[in-house]
Write a structure and sequence with these properties.
Elements lengths: L1 H32 L7 H32 L7 H22 L12 H18 L1 H6 L2 H17 L1 H27 L7 H4 L8 H12 L4 H11 L16 H15 L16 H16 L5 H12 L7 H7 L8 H5 L13 H5 L8 H9 L4 H9 L2 H10 L9 H16 L12 H8 L3 H11 L5 H12 L5 H15 L1
């Protein structure tokens, strides 16, 4: 008698172990499937790949668990044929559900999730029921089999209407795209801005990008935008994307539209609605406010009003924090000072970084560097930029042309950056000689050496970076160019 019970106990323990592992993978898979489109395209593709791996691993475990139950439990054997058919069939349905969930904005939206979310618990529960005597005593064979495999069959079959619904939705989408394509092709050569704005939200990303690019180059876009803001049909989400000039008139009209768009969204009673109902207009308002504030249009009142309105809804999103941050005085005009879209937007108050942004353009370089030299706080700005690896190279590149004051702080910051850049460059060994031309290629344009010489000849303490530069240069083969730069560095050291 004992010998007969032991295999059943071992099988039950094995089934419980497999069941726990399967449930862990199931929980991870459901979480992944519920958010397949939450990031950029590369991140979404990675999430879909992970979901596919989790799905395959889970269904293999389900098959193994069902096989164990059929071998070790007489109660599960009558359902063996059903399991043999329905586990692969439900796996195929789950794979199809994964495909549908990769585009949840189309019907049947997120409903396909019910297949991978509900089938595994049913199979796991049935197998554990078959192998655990106490569970078998609680539920009859017929009822357990009907619930588990009948439920699996029904859930698997739901994929058929879902796929049909998606096919119909995609057909409608194709028809809409064709209709929009024809309408876009029939636009006049010089359309008004309002002729193009309907295409900004086109289903096909290529068409919306084409419409946006065309809108950005309309000669009349500024006047058209102000007209649309005044009459209330301007898409606020695109205020900062149309290359508009942030004039006082545009600012006032945009703020007015923000106030008008807000009014119908304010809750009139205490019954809180879901934030999902207003996420689209709030996102548009935040985008518009960020552009306005960044270009010096004070909109604290509007940002506060939108934040207050959004907070009244249930489970508000991250946008409320963005609205709060927009009231930080440091945000007002920051984009205009540090990163304006056009050279013509630069002002005497602009940050050194803003002027140097345009110095790479040969047509603007002379004017940009001349403007940079007039920036009142350019030395402090240069020190700030040298503390940021992304901006530091720009300062090093143009340092001799910026008429900076060689303060101890500037010398220290610039030397630290130069030593960091020199330290990244390969030093060839004696048994692997390299030509000096290779070092020049590794240095890029060699602006580091020009900056080093400027610092040394303007009173900075340069012994350490000069030593490092000379050691680096001497590690490459001798040449006329190499000796000339070493002589220049030696001269700079003496000065």
């Amino acid at each position: 008698m004992t010998a007969q019970k032991k295999p059943s106990a071992v099988a039950a323990a094995a089934a419980i172990g497999l069941g726990v592992l399967a449930l862990a993978i199931w929980a991870l898979m459901v979480a992944t499937l519920a958010n397949l489109t939450g990031t950029d395209p590369a991140g979404n593709a990675l999430a879909q790949a992970y979901a596919a791996i989790e799905l395959v691993a889970l269904w293999l475990l389900l098959g193994l668990l069902a096989t164990l139950a059929a071998i070790k439990s007489p109660a599960a054997r009558p359902a063996g044929i059903a399991a043999l058919v329905l586990i692969p069939a439900s796996g195929l349905a789950a794979v199809l559900a994964l495909g549908l969930l990769s585009e949840p904005r189309l019907t049947p939206y997120r409903w396909p999730l019910i297949i991978p979310a509900l089938v595994p618990p049913l199979v796991i529960a049935f197998c554990l029921w078959a192998l655990v005597p106490r569970w078998r005593a609680a539920v009859s064979d017929r009822r357990a089999t009907a619930i588990a495999w009948g439920g699996t069959l029904i859930l698997s079959l739901t994929i058929v209407p879902m796929v049909l619904l998606r096919d119909q939705a995609e057909e409608r989408l194709v028809a809409l795209e064709e209709k929009q394509e024809a309408a876009f092709a029939n636009l006049p050569a010089e359309p008004a801005l309002w002729d193009l704005t309907p295409f900004l939200r086109a289903p096909h990303a290529t068409k919306s990008a084409e419409a946006l690019e065309r809108a950005r180059h309309l000669d009349r876009r500024q006047n058209d935008a102000e007209m649309m803001l005044e009459r209330g049909d301007f898409p606020l989400l695109y205020l900062g994307a149309l290359d508009l000039t942030p004039t006082p008139s545009l600012c006032d009209k945009a703020r007015g539209l923000l106030r008008r768009r807000l009014e119908p969204l304010v809750l009139k009673d205490a019954a809180a609605k879901s934030y999902s109902e207003i996420v689209e207009p709030v996102t548009g308002a935040v985008a518009a406010l960020e552009w306005l504030v960044g270009y010096g249009c004070a909109a604290d009142a509007e940002a506060q009003a939108w934040e207050t309105m959004a907070k009244a809804y249930r489970d508000p999103g991250y946008e409320i924090y963005r609205l709060r941050d927009l009231r930080d005085p440091a945000r007002l005009g920051r984009v205009l000072r540090e990163d304006p879209a056009r050279f013509s937007m630069l002002t005497p108050q602009a940050h050194l970084k803003a002027w140097l942004k345009f110095a790479d353009d040969m047509a603007l370089r002379s004017e940009a560097l001349a403007g940079a030299r007039t920036t009142a706080n350019r030395t402090a700005h240069a020190i700030e930029m040298l503390g940021n690896e992304q901006d530091a190279w720009t300062v090093i590149r143009y340092l001799p042309a910026l008429d900076l004051e060689p303060t101890p702080a500037l010398c220290q910051a610039a030397n630290g950056e130069l030593r960091r850049q020199f330290g990244k460059i390969h030093r060839p060994s004696n048994d692997d000689p390299r030509p000096y031309s290779e070092l020049l290629a590794r240095l890029g344009t060699g602006e580091q050496l020009k900056a080093l010489i400027w610092l040394a000849t303007h009173g900075c303490e340069q012994h350490a970076p000069l030593d490092e530069a000379e050691t680096l240069i001497r590690s490459y083969q001798n040449s006329g160019e190499r000796e000339a730069i070493l002589a220049t560095l030696a001269k700079a050291r003496r000065r």
